[in-house]
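Entry 12.
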Amino acid sequence: MKLLIDFLPIVIFFIVYKMTGDLILATAVLIPATMLQMAYTKWSTGKIEKMQLATLIMVVFFGGLTVLLKDGAFIKWKPTVVNWLFAVVFFASQFIGKKPVVQRIMEQGVQLPHNAWRGLNLAWVGFFAFMGIVNLYVAFNFSEETWVDFKLFGMLGLTIVFIIAQGFYMAKHMAQQPDTSNQEED
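Predicted 3D structure (tokens):
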């Protein structure tokens, strides 16, 4: 459900673009849609994650430049900048703090050995870096319409494939964890 909520502004952007063929208008709608998404998230969960806030700031910044300057190149750069920013944050977390970012996000629901968390975190670094590169390639080597399609279907599809692969990785490492649930307490 969270993934669907996270992608809702992109879906709205896609629908507006497909109905009008106007990237500037679709971007102008994306900005308040993202703000409403954040408001809903705050209302429903009581908090906004730092990654969501960073995305909102980038949407407002790059979307604002796109609308004000009537230049779609700015909004095309936004996914790359967001992904590369996440890659830098996840990479830096390997060295700053006691736990990598991915562990801080997921450890309440998943128990993994420390080295598995580090490997998973580095996988996310690679994924974010790759997504940034692929976005630029599609944005500036294909038509605007192809990029809009990729932004919704390609990025979502690649994210789902990566999350499934991540699940297999975590399952492998969770199976290696000793089961302490049946041990007697002293």
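Annotation: Residues 2-175 form one domain. The mean pLDDT is 89.
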